[in-house]
From TrEMBL:
It holds the Pfam family DUF1091. Keywords: Signal. Residues 331-450 form the MD-2-related lipid-recognition domain. SMART domains: DM8. It comes from Aphis craccivora (Cowpea aphid). This is MD-2-related lipid-recognition domain-containing protein.
Length: 461
């Protein structure tokens, strides 16, 4: 009779893992079960490989019996959306296990997945097998035919822009756009930024501070979000969670681990990384691409969030400039004053402009003044109060007391009401703000890259 599917489990079976499925079912509510997770192609899924489907049913005396019927071959997806398949709508009721294998011309198994049960229990009790077997060439095209409407549903869920065969995937190079961190206890702090040094060289600069040793007592939680075609980040494009955070991060970074340690002047390249502050004067981003990760992936824009957690699941970590939606960009993160910001220090501001042939040219605008706190308050105008309120600083007057202040996010549009000239040359600028003591020692420094555009224009980023 007619049936509906009750999906019970998803798990990978033995293969060479060139095509990987990391999927699972999540019971969200009493009436909703979702498919979540990710899949990875290290080779394209196209019609040069063979689709091998085998459905096993549960025998009445226990155990799976194969060849019951052939298979036709995440943020979450309601499993009811996966029932609109292009295969017979009438079949024997029962519980089944569906195994889908993709083979190449050498009959090597590239991947396999999934455990399905059909709506009702067998009328005579127990489980039966060996109903049917289905094998076909042109795996990608035939899987698309079988899945029919479900094909497009899954492609939308997994943010694959091209729904035709072969699935768009290939070798890539990484273009780094921003370095930022997430909300944490600040026991491990990252103060990093990307600096355009010349027309062809972009660097990673800044420092990181370990208030505690970074070792294998922590858990590493990595989540890659992909940029949706209609705007906004969609999480879980790739998920990697592992214990022994330091050792496994070292494995993932590969040769980049040693490049970073040399650049940040970390003397020992083994785990753990000791307590301390480590500073780099700059490392070329091209040197950070030799990672120990798959060399083939879907092309697109991604946001990688790496969290370091302790056994209580507390996050150790630090400032975020995050693309939140298509129209809202936020400033996130924290600032820490080890001493009060007051008028005993001076403010040194220097704006560099981007040259027509590339590279930053300093001294486009220079402003140096004593009484740093009061004069910064004057320059920021209404933005001063906006920022202090966002960072939960109790008083808007000077000085700002010692402490760590954190914001959950402030819309960058709210930071434009500055008390500065409203007319200036259009272009790209890098603003360097330094706070100095009477000995001209730099106590704090921040660099802000920005563009001045016509009122009718928008940023290209």
């Amino acid at each position: 009779g007619e049936y509906r599917l009750f999906l019970e489990k998803f798990y990978p079976c033995k293969s060479n893992n060139l095509i990987q499925y990391n999927l699972y079912l999540s019971k969200e509510t009493l009436n909703t079960t979702q498919l979540k997770g990710n899949f990875t192609f290290t080779i394209p899924l196209d019609d040069t490989i063979i689709l091998d489907g085998n459905l096993a049913s549960w025998d009445s005396i226990g155990g799976w019996k194969s060849n019951s019927m052939g298979t036709y071959t995440t943020t979450g997806l309601d499993m009811k959306e996966l029932e609109d398949l292009n295969f017979p709508k009438v079949y024997f009721y029962g519980k089944y296990k569906l195994t889908v294998k993709k083979r190449n011309a050498k009959n090597e198994v590239l991947c396999c997945l999934l455990d399905i049960s059909v709506a009702s229990w067998d009328s005579i009790g127990g489980w039966k097998s060996n109903s049917a077997v289905y094998m076909t060439k042109n795996a990608c095209s035939n899987w698309q035919k079988v899945l029919e409407n479900v094909w497009n549903t899954l492609f939308t869920l997994f943010n694959v822009s091209n729904t035709s065969c072969p699935i768009a995937v290939g070798e890539y190079r990484i273009v780094f756009e921003k370095i930022y961190s997430c909300e944490s206890t600040n026991s491990i702090q990252f103060n990093l930024y990307i600096n355009k040094k010349t027309l062809s060289i972009t660097e990673l600069k800044g420092n990181f501070t370990n208030m505690v040793p970074f070792g294998d007592t922590f858990t590493l939680d990595i989540n890659a979000a992909s940029w949706d075609s209609i705007g906004g980040w969609k999480p879980n494009s790739m998920v990697y969670i592992t214990k022994n955070a330091c050792s496994n991060w070292k494995k993932i970074l590969g040769n980049v681990w040693y490049t970073l340690f040399k650049s940040f002047n970390v003397s020992n390249t083994s785990c753990p990384i000791p307590v301390g502050t480590y500073i780099t004067t700059g490392v070329d981003l091209k040197k950070l691409e030799d990672l120990n990760v798959p060399k083939v992936y879907f092309y697109g824009k991604y946001k990688l969030t790496a969290k370091i957690k302790n056994v209580k699941n507390k996050v150790f970590g630090c400032v975020v400039l995050d693309k939140k939606t298509l129209s809202v960009t936020e400033l996130k993160g924290n600032l820490t004053f080890s001493l009060p910001l007051d008028d005993t220090v001076s403010l040194d501001i220097n704006a560099a402009s981007w040259g027509s042939i590339g590279g930053w040219k300093p001294n486009s605008m220079v402003y140096i003044t004593k009484n740093a706190c009061s004069n910064w308050k004057k320059i920021l105008g209404n933005v001063w109060n906006t920022l202090l309120q966002s960072y939960n600083i109790p008083s808007t007057s000077c000085p700002i007391p010692s402490g760590t202040y954190t914001t959950t996010g402030v819309d960058l549009k709210e930071l434009e009401d500055l008390k500065v000239p409203k007319e200036y040359f259009y272009g790209k600028y890098k603003l360097t703000v330094k706070v100095k003591n009477v000995k001209y020692e730099v106590l704090g420094c921040v660099e802000i890259e920005h563009s001045l555009v016509r009122p009718r224009e928008t940023s290209t980023d």
